[in-house]
Amino acid sequence: MKARLVAVGERPPGWVAEGFGEYRKRLSHWLPLELVEITPGLRGKGRDAARATFDEGQRVLAALPRDLHVVALDGRGRAWDSEALSKRLEHWRGQGRDLAFLVGGPAAPPDEVLARADETWSLGPLTLPHMLVRLVLAEQLYRAAALLANHPYHRA
């Protein structure tokens, strides 16, 4: 099984890219993780924010092959602790399909994107910068995979 992180935004800060790269490398044996960056919609003075969000959503949907199990990160989604996420990862593996995780832009994901998702995942009630979500997601996937492999990384 492989995973794809489809994220709105380009050029993360160096510390985010470095941290994401480290967890991506660690995950490579258990769950290869590809990053697909989506160009953000144009926002600002005189721009239509709804149009920008719609355009982002269309680019996100275009980056998703049909046969993926899609998990959208959304504050209204289900929150899992580390053990529950590892069980979820085990469930996803049992489905025999590759995964895609979606991280939207500055606005909530458009309805079309949420409709494409098979499920939604919340990282909790905090509002996090979208670039930081990439790093948190990669670390949590690594932790879940490590739990399944009885690796000592997770010490509860």
From TrEMBL:
Assembly mode: Homodimer.
Gene3D superfamilies named in the record: 3.40.1280.10
A Pfam entry, by short name: SPOUT_MTase
Role noted for this protein: Specifically methylates the pseudouridine at position 1915 (m3Psi1915) in 23S rRNA.
CDD domains cross-referenced by the UniProt entry: RlmH-like
Keyword Methyltransferase: yes
Entry-linked InterPro entries: Alpha/beta_knot_MTases, RlmH-like, tRNA_m1G_MTases_N
Name of the coding gene: rlmH
NCBIfam families registered for this protein in UniProt: PRK00103.1-4, tRNA_RlmH_YbeA
Family listed: Belongs to the RNA methyltransferase RlmH family.
Compartments (UniProt record): Cytoplasm
Record field: catalytic activity: pseudouridine(1915) in 23S rRNA + S-adenosyl-L-methionine = N(3)-methylpseudouridine(1915) in 23S rRNA + S-adenosyl-L-homocysteine + H(+)
Name this protein carries in UniProt: Ribosomal RNA large subunit methyltransferase H
Binding site for S-adenosyl-L-methionine: 73, 104, 123-128
Enzyme class at the top of the EC tree: transferase
Keyword rRNA processing attached: yes
Key words of the record: Cytoplasm, Methyltransferase, rRNA processing, S-adenosyl-L-methionine, Transferase
